[in-house]
Write a structure and sequence with these properties.
Elements (H helix, E strand, L loop, with lengths): L2 H24 L10 E5 L4 H12 L3 E6 L2 H18 L5 E5 L6 H15 L2 E6 L14 H29 L2 E6 L12 H21 L4 E6 L4 E2 L1 H7 L4 H7 L5 E2 H13 L4 E2 L2 H10 L9 H42 L1
Helix pairs in contact: 2-3, 2-9, 4-5, 5-6, 8-11, 10-11
Length: 334
């Protein structure tokens, strides 16, 4: 073997060793939910309900929290059916509450939930809603409601659960943000602000709770086929509709399964589809490094993905400009 080939062989070997070493440093054993208590906000429909079915199939007991009692009762029956089909011995309970109202409501829910099913091992914050409107058309009441439900509702109940998780020295916290929390889009000024705030909350909380064996995961789903998405579409400006179509429409079950899988291994970001992968890679910034694949993607692909993102932004800008010109032309005709 020539000296050049030998040196090349040594170099490749060192790179492989380095990659394996880093992968081992970031690797986390997948945790088991059998016999554990999972509390899910927004658990009566959509992604939250799909998460409930997923964790129930893994042997967990489930607490569902939402506002509509009728929907909660229906959801409880459905999840009980999932548990019965596998005979896991898990239980399901629900609480009707407006978590964004104040911290006392969240405190009461957590206290009552844990009195029945024991300490919460995994908290999944799925409560939230979106309304897409032009900035100047957003009412103060709607903006406040979006901040209360999407941000404060998750903040208050997580605060209460984390206090108890620290005593247990274990746990998983999941926040459901959105791809709109990573990228501000036409029509989503208030919604993007609320969901973006969740990501920064998660980053800071991750640093605080890591010594207690508590992990934090942020789900940034694309458009997902849920009752909430149907309601959101009723007020969407045409620009928002056309831009959103680029990422496609995913099933709630797909998003929920990926969310649970990634949370159980302690991954910080979880998402679906290429656009989600591109956005979480580009927007990692000073966020936590929790797995080797994401880390190497962020290091080696950020430059390339920034070029790709410029094309996306250019195409979005073209949509906005085109619709603007249509409106101007329509006004001249009138």
């Amino acid at each position: 073997m020539s000296l050049c080939c030998y040196l090349e062989y040594i170099g490749v070997t060192m790179v492989i060793v380095a990659i394996v070493t880093i992968a081992n440093i970031f690797s986390t054993k997948k945790r088991d939910l059998k016999g554990k208590h999972v509390l899910i906000t927004g658990g009566s429909s959509g992604i939250g309900l799909s998460v409930a079915h997923d964790v129930a199939r893994r042997g967990a007991s489930v607490t569902l929290v939402a506002r509509n009692v009728a929907n909660l009762q229906k959801a409880q029956e459905e999840v009980e059916g999932t548990i019965s089909s596998i005979s896991s011995g898990g239980k399901v309970q629900f609480f009707s509450a407006d978590l964004g109202a104040n911290a006392e409501v969240a405190c009461t829910v957590v206290k009552d939930a844990e009195a029945s099913l024991g300490p919460v091992f995994m908290l999944v914050n799925c409560a939230g809603f979106a309304r897409a409107q032009k900035f100047e058309d957003l009412s103060p009441q709607l903006v406040k409601s979006m901040m209360d439900v999407n941000f404060l509702g998750s903040f208050f109940i997580t605060q209460e659960v984390v206090r108890n998780m620290k005593q247990q020295e274990e746990g998983i916290v999941v926040f459901t943000s959105s791809q709109g929390g990573l990228l501000g889009l036409y029509g989503f000024t208030a919604y993007a602000a609320a969901k973006g705030a969740l990501i920064k909350l998660a980053e800071a909380l991750h640093m605080e709770v890591k010594p207690y064996n508590i992990t934090v995961t942020v789900c940034c789903p694309p458009d997902t086929d849920t009752p909430g998405f149907e309601e959101e579409n009723k007020t969407k400006p045409i620009e928002t509709q056309l831009i959103s179509e680029a990422a496609g429409l995913f099933k709630a079950e797909e998003v929920a399964h990926k969310l649970v899988e990634d949370a159980l291994i302690g991954k910080f970001f979880t998402t679906n589809g290429f656009e989600g992968y591109l956005l979480t890679t580009l927007c990692a910034g000073m966020g936590p490094v929790t797995d080797a694949l994401s880390f190497f993607s962020q290091v080696f692909l950020s430059g390339l993905f920034r070029s790709v993102s410029a094309f996306y932004l250019w195409s979005f800008g073209r949509i906005v400009e085109r619709e603007h010109q249509k409106r101007m032309a329509s006004k001249k005709v009138e």
